[in-house]
Design goal:
Elements: E1 2-7, H1 12-31, E2 38-43, H2 58-66, H3 70-86, H4 102-112, H5 117-130, H6 138-147, H7 152-159, H8 165-177, E3 182-183, E4 185-188, E5 192-195, H9 200-212, E6 240-242, E7 245-247
Parallel strand pairs: 1-2
Antiparallel strand pairs: 1-4, 3-7, 4-5, 6-7
Helix pairs in contact: 1-9, 2-3, 4-5, 5-6, 6-7
């Protein structure tokens, strides 16, 4: 079974949804120890036109975008931090530094070539949400690459070129073709899709259904989303992040 996951580094529900999926996979693998499950991370940019670094804090960005009082924006981030804590994650929104994620996705694509997909995803999200690091900064990306086992010099060389740019754009073109406008978005065996940070039992149902239907030759172009997101907690990131997913 293969699970394609469209995700952006700065999408809070993407990390929450990942934790929900991981918990569902634990139960699934316990019941199906011989099942092989491949997880393929795919790039998605919530704001492809974002500057390399924003001068705004997250609450300031939210207050401006949605026309809400700054106090309400701050409260939304406290709620998101509480949701993170409920799944064992830490969101230090006061330290978060927003920027363009294209090069972060290129680093993730490079990591994928070395079978370090999950390590890259975890390191990038932790850098942004927990450590307050700027994931558009090439020095930061070099350090992240080295922390997961990549050569720092190789990362520098990749970032100085346009290497893996086509891979990132390919993933985003696939997302357009599937009608994906928000993340996280999970496609199970090219047929069954889950949109947003759904509860664990929804992911388990998708796993069981895909496993039962495996081998019928359906492709990713046939994927259809479930009805809406039902993530835990509220709050918003720079893009529209409500109801369990972030949209462009």
């Amino acid at each position: 079974m293969r699970i394609d996951i469209w995700s952006d580094v700065v999408c809070p529900f993407c990390w929450i949804g990942k934790r929900h999926l991981e918990k569902a996979l634990q139960g699934f693998r316990a019941e199906h120890p011989d099942a092989e499950v491949e997880v393929l991370w795919r790039a998605f940019q919530l704001d492809p036109n974002a500057e390399a670094e924003s001068s705004e804090t997250i609450p300031e960005m939210i207050a401006r975008k949605y026309g809400m009082p700054l106090e309400a924006a701050v409260e939304s981030q406290d709620q998101m931090a509480a949701t993170f804590a409920s799944v064992g994650l830490e969101f230090n929104w006061r330290d978060a530094r927003s920027g363009n994620t294209f090069d972060a996705h290129r680093l993730a694509a490079m990591a994928s070539d070395h079978d370090l997909d999950d390590e890259a995803d975890e390191a990038l999200k932790k850098a942004y949400f927990t450590d307050g690091r700027l994931v558009s900064d090439h020095g930061v990306l070099r350090e992240i690459g080295e922390s997961i086992g990549l050569s720092g010099d190789a990362v520098d060389g990749m970032l100085a070129s346009d290497e893996y740019a086509l891979d990132v754009r390919h993933d985003m073109t696939m997302a357009q073709g599937l009608g994906i406008s928000g993340v996280p978005f999970f496609v199970f065996d090219g047929k069954f899709a889950v949109n947003g940070a759904q509860p664990v039992d929804v992911f388990r149902q998708a796993l069981d259904t895909a496993w039962a239907e495996s081998g019928k030759g359906v492709t990713t172009t046939d994927a259809t989303a479930s009805d809406g997101g039902a993530g835990d907690g509220g709050g918003a990131e720079g893009p529209d992040c409500t109801d369990g997913s972030c949209s462009t």
